């Protein structure tokens, strides 16, 4: 029953684009493990906030995140 409540994590590749006033100025790709795409996006956002490119002094700072399944992560059991 626990397996149904907490799906096994899997690997995701998250591409984060950093934007200023709608214009991209940097992109980073993070490899994250999460149980679903929403979780992977949340983790990627947390990683982006720790990036040197995430600077609140940048005008109209925004991020755009794209998440795709990747071939790494929790091993199959």
If you had to describe this structure to a student in words, what would you say it looks like?
This protein is an alpha+beta fold. Helices cover 22% and strands 42% of the residues. The protein has two helices and three strands, in the order H-E-E-H-E. A hairpin with a 2-residue loop joins strand 1 and strand 2 (23-34). The longest helix has 13 residues, at 37-49. The chain is elongated and about 45 Å long. The mean pLDDT is 90.
* Radius of gyration from the alpha-carbon trace, in angstroms: 15 Å
Spatial separation of the terminal alpha carbons? 17 Å
* Approximate strand percentage: 35-45%
Instruction: Give the rounded overall mean pLDDT.
Output: 90
Overall shape: elongated
Give a count of the beta strands, DSSP E runs of length 2 or more.
3
Q: Order of strands in the sheet with the most strands?
A: 2-1-3
Q: Describe the biggest sheet? A: 3 strands, antiparallel
Low-confidence region ranges: none
List the secondary-structure elements in sequence, H or E: HEEHE
**Level of helix content?**
10-25%
């Amino acid at each position: 029953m626990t397996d149904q409540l907490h799906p096994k994590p899997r690997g995701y590749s998250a591409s984060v684009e950093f934007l200023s006033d709608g214009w991209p100025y940097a992109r980073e790709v993070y490899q994250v493990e999460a149980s679903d795409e929403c979780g992977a996006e949340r983790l990627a956002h947390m990683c982006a906030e720790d990036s040197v490119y995430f600077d609140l002094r940048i005008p109209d700072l925004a991020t755009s995140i794209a998440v795709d399944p990747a071939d790494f992560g929790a091993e199959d059991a």
